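Input chain follows. Return structure tokens only.
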Amino acid sequence: MTTKTSNLQEDTSSEKMATLSDLVNKAVKKGYAANFNVKPNGMLWDSKDQYYDPLEVSIDDFYRFEGESDPADSAILYLISTADGNRGTLIDAYGAYDDANASEFIRQVTDIHKQKQRMQISQRDRKRYWAAAALLTISGLLFIAMGKCKRC
């Protein structure tokens, strides 16, 4: 399953875009051609041997891919722009297989954007959500209180 938050959304859909490689190919066509990797001393653009600090990087968008049957297939694709105008992709696994260097680097990036959301939640649905959350919280507190009450 693919979770999209996309500036590539207009020409991709879950039916058309099922794999990480499909989206990487579309990103390259949109100008995100550099292949970035994270090393202990920063994000590396391999073909130029250029390192970037988290403050020199902007995450324009990102996509999360969840493995349907294998958690090892879980990954995040980041669309990245650098302060000197380069654009490219960074792929990081998440969960048990995440790259500690990449995860820490991304946590330090302060300029992170999500583009269009796949689903907009109406104001009415948002109110229903909060009402349900409040009801569950109250129910949980009552359950705990009843468990502590010896006479109940």
